[in-house]
Here is the input.
Amino acid sequence: MPYDERFITPMRQELTRLGVQEMRTSDEVDQALADAKEPTLLVVNSMCGCAARNARPGVAMALAQAQKKPAKLTTVFAGQDLEATARARDYITGYPPSSPSIALLKDGDVAFMLERHQIEGRSADAIAHDLAGAFEQYC
Here is the structure.
């Protein structure tokens, strides 16, 4: 059952205010990702504490600090936009469902992935460092 939108909106805005495109339907996911050849960041956002403490701040820091950045920034919200999240996970092949998670797609394939177990318990700085390294390598 989806969460109360009043609680979710600020969590969505942490990414959308950075210019991250929110995808709330499976059609929006396909429009954004189906033919994307350029490096594309896909954040599977979540209500959990590790998303608030580590993942979203790590994404924000990486985007602020990195010299190279993905051409396209996208996100879905797990536990809320169920259809969009399920469809987005179809683009993250080879990885089990995980939220939060952060994928960097290039030419339609996963070039870099941070799963929940690589986010949980780590600092936002460490996550930003990993993402900035991936941006440098693949963007």
